[in-house]
Design goal:
With 272 residues, the chain is α+β, with helices and mostly antiparallel strands. It contains eight helices and ten strands.
Length: 272
């Protein structure tokens, strides 16, 4: 990864106020699809209602993450045909609070910032609704709210963190599918959980978003999945769109300088 000033500003810019990086580990193997996390998120953060009309394609009434759905419980139905056993895969999706956050990189007003906890938050009083952050997110998480124009997404309950409280979604989860804590500790816990499932014959269990060497530098919210990421609507190999921006601008500058040099040489040649 190159040219990451927005990311590298944390934790150095906070000095003694910097906290351990916190995040979410979502274990989909114990998600029951109750949507308590969705409700708790909306109630605490005053997120507008949505998803009141069923599509007829699924029991999942919200469909995807967006400006009015900061937590989204996906319902994936598998099997049930030709004698295959039916199973449900359920997963509570959320903003990933990426290590290298494309939304943060492209915001022209500073509305997006990285907190002292290492999370990424939008300040609505500064957001001008330009939408650059929407295209900067490799997960399609952030969205502008209809009738409002500004960008909205999960804050990882930044206000609750200041009072030593866990985020509303994790607090409401009855099965501990959503686990909150220090990110390094969550990664250790997740690795042990995968080992446990493998020992029980659940060999399809795998982690998603936990690797610091992936295309976004690892996620602040990562998952234990029971199938390929695409099954859950997640990109298999996410890459922050701004990863090579610095090198591209340098290349463009070099090319522009070369063209200017050629033009000057041609002009001087004609004068002689």
């Amino acid at each position: 990864m190159t040219d990451r000033p927005a990311t590298e500003a944390w934790p150095q810019s906070y000095g003694d106020e910097a906290q351990e990086r916190i995040g979410f580990f979502t274990d989909t193997s114990v998600c029951i699809g109750c949507k308590a996390c969705e409700v708790a998120c909306k109630e605490w953060n005053l997120v507008p209602e949505d998803g009141l009309v069923f599509s007829g394609d699924s029991y999942d009434n919200t469909g995807s993450l967006g400006a009015d759905s900061w937590r989204h419980v996906a319902f994936v139905e598998q099997g049930g045909d030709d004698g295959d056993p039916l199973r449900w895969l359920m997963s509570s999706d959320v903003c990933k609070h990426c290590t290298h956050a494309g939304c943060l990189d492209v915001c022209p007003t500073g509305a997006l910032f990285r907190t002292e906890f290492g999370t990424v938050v939008v300040q609505q009083d500064i957001c001008n609704g330009c939408g650059y952050c929407v295209s900067g997110c490799p997960y399609g998480v952030i969205e502008r709210r209809e009738g409002d124009g500004r960008a909205w997404k999960c804050t990882l309950c930044y206000d609750r963190l200041h009072d030593g409280l866990e985020p509303a979604c994790a607090k409401a989860c009855p099965t501990d599918s959503i686990q909150f804590g220090v990110l390094d500790e969550l990664r250790e816990r997740a690795a042990l959980r995968v080992e446990e499932l493998h020992s029980r014959g659940v060999t399809e269990a795998r982690l998603y978003g936990h690797d610091p060497n992936d295309g976004v530098g690892g996620d602040g919210a990562f998952f234990l999945l029971l199938d390929e990421p695409e099954v859950y609507g997640l990109p298999p190999d996410p890459v922050v769109p701004t990863r090579d921006a610095g090198a591209m601008w340098r290349f463009a500058g070099t090319a522009a300088s070369a063209f200017v040099g050629i033009a000057v040489s041609a002009f001087m040649g004609r004068r002689r």
